[in-house]
Amino acid sequence: METLLQGALAFFAALGLVTLAWLAFGHLLLPRELEPGGLYAVLPARGDGEHLEQDLRRLLWLRDSGAPRVPIVIADAGLSPQGRRVAQALLGRYCGTVLCPMDQLSAYLASGWTRAEPHSEANF
Q1: 80 alpha-carbon distance from chain centroid
Q2: Mean pLDDT of 83-107
Q3: I want to staple 79 with a disulfide (CB 3.0 to 4.6 A). Which of 54, 59, 83, 111 is the partner?
Q4: For 41, what's the count of Cα atoms within 13 Å in the CB-facing half-sphere?
Q5: CB contact at 8 A, 75 and 92
């Protein structure tokens, strides 16, 4: 019985050390403060936007789970009218996202915009 308790104690001690290491490395690798305009997440969107919501939700999960809060740019790389409707609906539902045509993406990123308003679409 004593051996079983020592094994359980060793297991939980190792689990605690792994958790501490995970948190320490996460803190070192994921800075909380960023320069304005320093980091964006770009999500290329094509066609009818079949996977657009799932991809956006994955990025939002990463952003909300401790990664830096970065603007998410949905880059229109050939969305159909149906795909644009899907993207516009997602802009209204999720804050911190913007829709930008792919050919204007470099101008948008160079402008240093850091906050995307709900229902935001980049116009240049």
Answers
A1: 24
A2: 88
A3: 83
A4: 19
A5: no
